[in-house]
Design goal:
- This protein is an alpha/beta fold.
- Helix content is about 35%, strand content about 20%.
- The strands form two sheets. It has a four-stranded parallel sheet with strand order 2-1-3-4, with helices on both faces. A four-stranded parallel sheet has the order 7-6-5-8, covered by helices on one side.
- Helix 4 packs across helix 5.
- The longest helix has 15 residues, at about 135-150.
């Protein structure tokens, strides 16, 4: 299965077969976290983070270093030409000359897709507004499969801010490709986005609740996300 040159914009761009392949490769590469590797020697990752990040940015940067590559980028957009009014397209046109792949985090929904439209190198969506966070969904699937030994057949609950939490949007899309039951637990005003809900309900059994009462004994996995105050 060949992913060379491919963008990662939405988890919806991947089939279950492709996701399973990624999870298999990730499992085989786990030893590199300790031993390191040179498989990406000479490759440069650009991390363009227009929003705050700790785990995602450091994960990308650590991964490229562990695999023999290097990285450039920024985590403070106020110190870049964006402060002077440079738009995403022009930033991408510049950075693509320095890097082999770009990981982008931005507050605007659709920004990763826009970047991909202007980029000659692959774009990885590292979180766009309240839209999606596809690489986080892949990590979450890895964790579930590693802990439970499977994904199919599980009963999984997503708890918290389901309206603005981009991680749960990507995870819900991904989980809907498997034979699972999904529980969505949140206050009324933080329910899952209608576009996401409509898509996943067409694929799997989905139950919406405002409380965990009676759910905990039934589920295999509980995924909790914080309130996204910065999106209000």
């Amino acid at each position: 299965m060949d992913f060379e040159g491919r963008d990662i914009i939405s988890i919806e761009d991947f089939s279950q077969q492709e996701i399973n392949h990624i999870l298999d490769v990730a499992k085989n590469m786990e030893p590199y976290a300790k031993t390191g590797s040179e498989i990406l020697k000479g490759k440069i990752l650009a991390t363009l983070f227009f929003e705050p990040s700790t785990r995602t940015r450091l994960s990308f940067e650590t991964a490229i270093l562990k695999l023999g590559g290097s990285y450039i980028g920024f985590a403070e957009p106020d110190l870049t030409s964006a402060r002077k009014g440079e738009n995403i397209a022009d930033t991408i046109r510049t950075v693509e000359n320095y890097a082999d792949v770009i990981a982008l985090r931005h507050s605007l929904e659709g920004s990763a897709k826009l970047a991909a439209d202007f980029s000659s190198v692959p774009i990885i969506n590292a979180g766009t507004g309240a839209e999606e966070h596809p690489t986080q969904a892949l990590i979450d699937l890895c964790t579930i499969r590693k802990d439970k030994g499977k994904i199919d057949g599980l009963k999984i609950a997503l708890l918290g801010d389901l309206r603005y939490g981009r991680t749960v949007h990507s995870l819900a899309y991904a989980l809907s490709l498997y034979n699972i039951e999904l529980y969505l637990v949140s206050p009324e005003n933080l329910r899952m986005r209608k576009d996401v809900l409509q898509t996943i309900k067409n694929r799997i059994k989905v139950t919406e609740n405002s409380t965990l009462e009676g759910i905990i004994p039934q589920i295999d996995v509980l995924y909790v996300t914080r309130i996204q105050k910065e999106r209000f």
